[in-house]
Specification:
Helix 2 packs across helix 4. It is built from six helices and 16 strands. The longest helix is centred in the middle third of the chain and has 26 residues. The chain is an alpha+beta fold. Helix content is about 25%, strand content about 20%. The chain has one domain: Sandwich (Jelly Rolls), CATH 2.60.120.330. It has an eight-stranded mixed β-sheet with strand order 3-4-12-9-14-7-6-5. Fe (ii) ion binds next to loops.
């Protein structure tokens, strides 16, 4: 399951091929991965490597702008820019969030000026739409794996995904190991589809209650997404699927990544699935409206920290 690499284990995660014509076999492999580590690689996802590279390049163009320019897009209503060290644990990263690009709230998105970054919005909208399409296919396979109708997770309304671009700056000298790029966390939504520029740093802790915690590197596979289960899917499945703790350590090297958070429709009620509970294993969490759950998690993590949170 793991390789040794400079004293830190490297995880060998399963690779899921989204183009495989054996839907049931693919759904079974995803099911297994979600139960084992809650992490897997996704290939043949339909997003060309050129588009991934272009989006990473545009991300770099944005984060290279003067702070004053970036602050014009300061985070509000879950969209926009969060500066370095602004989240709860002082993580050394800056981010920008992009919400749904074509629903009735798309006007809330904050875009850099066309005069400064002419093709930025177009690239991000295209990337958003393509990753969402891959995400929808994945979610329908998960529904299949859980013996649900394939549209189960979108029956109340369309998913509400958020794209978050992240930049971890390069740093010189000896780094304080206690300060991280992204502190240990689990993601809030259904699933996350992540790509990085290949610079290492992402680590996973498979047993969150084990002390001391054991962290393993997630190796980069060019062109593949790293997919992980989020807390709402863990709640839906009564912990059958694992929303695994992960973090990004600082290596001194500059790093870019793009996380696509698949969130349920805000009015969807996340409630233990019948197939995942029994008398011996009652629901561990009360039902909750997805929108309320997310709002609380954002608030607790102080995301944005710009005083603009609604
Ligand atoms: O930057 C990364 O590789 C991971 C980011 C992440 O875990 C997140 O944004 O939730
Ligand atoms: Fe994460």
């Amino acid at each position: 399951m793991a390789d040794r690499n400079n004293g830190v284990e490297s995880l060998k995660l399963p690779v899921i091929d989204l183009l495989s014509s054996h839907r049931l076999a693919t759904a079974t492999s995803i099911h297994q991965a979600c139960k084992d580590t809650g992490f897997f690689y996704l290939i043949n996802h339909g997003i060309e490597i050129e588009l991934i590279q272009k989006a990473l390049e545009e991300s770099k163009n944005f984060f290279s702008l003067p702070l004053e320019e970036k602050m014009k897009l300061a985070w509000k209503e879950h969209r926009g820019y969060t500066p370095l060290c602004s989240e709860r644990l002082g993580d050394v990263k800056e981010t920008i969030y992009i919400g749904p690009v074509e629903d009735d709230k798309s006007y809330l998105n904050q875009w850099p000026s066309r005069d400064i970054l002419p093709s930025w919005r177009f690239t991000m909208e295209l990337y958003y739409e393509k990753v969402r399409a891959a995400g929808r296919m994945l979610i329908s396979l998960i529904a299949l794996a859980l013996n649900l109708e394939e549209d189960f997770f979108e029956k109340d309304g369309p998913m509400d995904p958020f794209l978050r671009l992240l930049h971890y700056p390069g740093e010189q000298g000896v780094l304080d190991e206690k300060v991280l790029g992204s502190s240990a966390h689990s993601d809030y939504g259904m699933m996350t589809l992540l790509v990085t520029d290949g610079v290492p740093g992402l680590q996973v802790c498979r047993e969150k209650t084990k002390k001391p915690q054991v962290w393993e590197d997630v190796p980069h596979i060019s062109g593949a997404f790293v997919v992980n289960i989020g807390d709402m899917m863990e709640r839906w499945t009564n912990c059958l699927y694992r929303s695994t703790l992960h973090r990004v350590i600082r290596t001194g090297q500059e790093r870019y990544s793009m996380a696509f958070f698949l969130n349920p429709f805000p009015d969807s009620v996340v409630k233990c699935l019948k197939s995942c509970c029994s008398e011996a294993s009652p629901p561990r969490f009360p039902p909750i409206r997805s929108g309320d759950y997310l709002k609380e998690r954002y608030r607790a993590n102080n995301i944005g920290n710009t005083g603009n949170d609604q």
